[in-house]
């Protein structure tokens, strides 16, 4: 018993033959018309879904990168302001007692406009820690209006210079 394909694509029994004949399939003319060139809607939809799933983490990466870049720019600005104020304090050429008398200072003073650097408004606070030898001076930098959120704190120790040991160099 063997099967043969008819023009419509259906198989029928061919019981009259003693030897098996070749089995072949002839496609229906309607199945040839259904397949067109291009992509189906489901294929396009699946492609867009995969692209969207890959796009979300990449956008989060860019968002985090921008946030951390601006955060680091603020830290660098605060560090530069703190170092500048620390150098200014050291170069005042004052004794420990004179620096203690100055006490806590904020630059610029609160009644004046803050420093505007890198799209931010900044203030610097210098405070002297009492009862320390050598004298401990702390410089804190914060954004204007947020004195409780200190960005950077630098600490230095100041000792009176021995002015009698400093020798002047004469120009010849």
Low-pLDDT segments: 1-10
Ends apart, CA distance between termini? 127 Å
The Rg value, from CA coordinates, equals: 42 Å
CATH architecture descriptor name of the largest domain: 2-Layer Sandwich
Relative strand content: 15-25%
Record field, number of beta strands? 7
| Main β-sheet description | 5 strands, antiparallel
| Number of continuous helical runs | 3
Notes on the structure:
The chain is α+β, with helices and mostly antiparallel strands and 172 residues long. It contains 3 helices and 7 strands, in the order E-E-H-H-H-E-E-E-E-E. The chain has helices at residues 29-34, 41-90, 96-102; strands at 2-5, 11-14, 105-107, 115-117, 120-129, 135-143, 150-158. Strands 3, 4, 5, 6 and 7 form a 5-stranded antiparallel sheet that branches. Strands 1-2 form a two-stranded antiparallel ribbon. The chain is rod-shaped.
């Amino acid at each position: 018993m063997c099967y043969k394909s008819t023009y419509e694509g259906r198989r029928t029994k061919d019981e009259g033959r003693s030897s098996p004949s070749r089995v072949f399939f002839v496609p229906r003319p309607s199945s040839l018309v259904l397949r067109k060139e291009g992509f189906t809607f489901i294929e396009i939809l699946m492609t867009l879904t995969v692209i969207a799933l890959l796009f979300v983490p990449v956008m989060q990466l860019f968002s985090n990168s921008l946030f951390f870049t601006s955060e680091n720019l603020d830290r660098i600005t605060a560090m530069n302001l703190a170092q500048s104020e620390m150098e200014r304090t050291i170069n005042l050429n004052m004794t420990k007692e004179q620096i203690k008398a100055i006490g806590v200072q904020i630059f610029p003073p609160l009644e004046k406009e803050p420093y505007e650097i890198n799209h931010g408004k900044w203030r610097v606070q210098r405070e002297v820690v009492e009862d320390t030898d050598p004298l401990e001076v702390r410089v804190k930098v914060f954004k204007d209006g947020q004195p409780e959120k200190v960005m950077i704190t630098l600490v230095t120790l100041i000792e009176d210079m021995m002015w009698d040991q400093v020798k002047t160099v004469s120009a010849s």
